[in-house]
Amino acid sequence: xxxxxxxxRRGLPLVRAxxxxxxxxxxxPRDRRVRALSTFSGQSPNKGRSLTGSGGxxxxxxxxxxxxxxxxxxxxxxxxxxxxxxxKPLLPQGAQRVFLLHPDVKWGAKKQTLxxxxxxxxxxxALVHTLMNWSVEETMIVSTKTPDKxxxxxxxxxxxxxxxxxxxxxxxxxxxxxxxxxxxTKKELETAWGVEVxxxxxxxxxxxxxxxxxxEAKLQIALAEIPLLRSNLRNEVAxxxxxxxxxxxxxxxxxxxxxxxxxxxxxxxxxxKKALEKLKKRRHLLRNQRKKRELPVISVMGYTxxxxxxxIKALTGDAAIQPRxxxxxxxxxxxxxxxxxxxxxxxxxxxxxxxxxLPYDLIESFSATLEDVAYSDVIIHVRDISHPESDLxxxxxxxxxxxxxxxxxxxGSIIEVHNKVDLVERYEPTExxxxxxxxxxxxxxxxxxxxxxxxxxxxxxxxxxxxxxxxEGAQLSWLYKEATVQEVDVIPExxxxxxxxxxxxxxxxxxxxxxPI
Length: 517
Ligand SMILES: Nc1nc2c(ncn2[C@@H]2O[C@H](COP(=O)(O)OP(=O)(O)OP(=O)(O)O)[C@@H](O)[C@H]2O)c(=O)[nH]1
Ligand SMILES: [Mg+2]
Description:
It is a single chain. The chain has four domains: 96-208, Rossmann fold (3-Layer(aba) Sandwich), CATH 3.40.50.11060; 213-240 and 255-285; 294-459, P-loop containing nucleotide triphosphate hydrolases (Rossmann fold), CATH 3.40.50.300; 462-514, Ribosomal Protein S8, Chain: A, domain 1 (2-Layer Sandwich), CATH 3.30.1370. Helix content is 44%, strand content 16%. The chain has helices spanning 4-9, 29-38, 48-51, 64-84, 117-130, 155-166, 183-193, 200-211, 215-242, 257-292, 308-316, 360-370, 390-403, 408-412, 445-460, 475-482, 505-514, and strands at 96-105, 134-144, 173-176, 196-198, 297-302, 334-339, 345-350, 378-384, 415-419, 435-436, 463-470, 484-491, 496-503. The strands form three sheets. A six-stranded mixed sheet has the order 6-7-5-8-9-10, with helices on both faces. A four-stranded parallel sheet has the order 2-1-3-4. Helix 5 (117-130) crosses helix 8 (200-211). Magnesium ion is lined by residues 308-309, 329-330, 350. Keywords: GTP-binding, Magnesium, Metal-binding, Nucleotide-binding.
């Protein structure tokens, strides 16, 4: 039986994807992000294996052979994972002048309810601008009653479009703003228009591929690509069949080309899922370690480009964080520590941004990482209130949050933050509890931190107390160890102090037992 590695050795067409990407890559963010996560695990960033208890320093007394075998195994695993991540480029390299074509479905089941054509077009434009050397040459919204037909548009509109595209030599490709285009449609349209045609899935997938930093995000994307590879395969085989080849058995093996390729894909899918499962276990371990240390976790969520990463940078002062003016700049869930006005240490979790029309397979593949949000104590929903469609963006974020099956208490704890107020003159929020800030300029952060603190205290059941202690004895050092000491007000006359602490219910119970009044 062929393994994936064997398939590659035999020259199946897998090549590393090239990322042509606006702004390029800042070298090293991956290391920094991993470091950010490992801050709470007490592990070195490159020693992930030791988290599962299978690695680390427990090598003393073991035979050389055993170590060698383990090393070989790790090397093979890594090689396998490398192969899982190899793929064909999705988009052509070099500059593209795109004709952005939006089919507007006027009625019927396919009619979008949440978002308007203009919003979708604006998002599609932003996606194109995220790609290096890509520009939108022209935009057109064309209505259609038959979005599922092979040619997408009715006969009259199709002819007009063909004339337009054929007569515009400056157009190098068409971005058909549909979630997914069937390969036959792609072929028909490309033949008719004489240029390459892309759908949103392909463009978003390309951006995701370029932005994924951690192995988990990369594997999630590779998994999301499998259905695309399957449908391309069906198309390829149909073409081969026309030439009289695809369904015939290969060199006496009894298997057809289609069957072999399907098996290779299935093997790939199983391996990716296994690798993801391993990483998930590691993530759970990190989560448990954070829990043990009782660090409150705050998930920062919101539409793509609303300023989540900028806000975390402002709240934590972490200079290594790099916000970028791009859609889907953050694809890896990363954790960063910060402190609140009471000096309580909290963990901010940066998350993937939402897009109203995010292709389903991609949401599906990222839902595993979003699972972690359910374990946070508080959610911050960041909104870019300078965006013309800010209200629609809010609605689409809330609808995704609802589908994540989060606990009611957590949903009730959402702090709505209106960001980028510096871009709107005299901004007044309509929502009474919203907090207005400029993450970029650092405005409104103190109020936000105070709000986060009270939400964290409420969610975690921690108390803010002033305890009277004797300076002689172990009380103060115990409190320093088990609670967050905010202030110590010494009264020298009687050798006591008033100590302001944030303390969990369980720690307070222990304190009372150890030091009865
Ligand atoms: N003017 C202004 N720009 C801001 C503010 N906050 C963020 N930005 C800019 O908005 C862009 C996106 O910021 P990010 O922090 O990367 O946004 P994000 O929500 O993390 O984006 P994704 O990770 O792509 O979902 C960057 O160019 C930021 O500089 C703000 O308060 N005012
Ligand atoms: Mg971000």
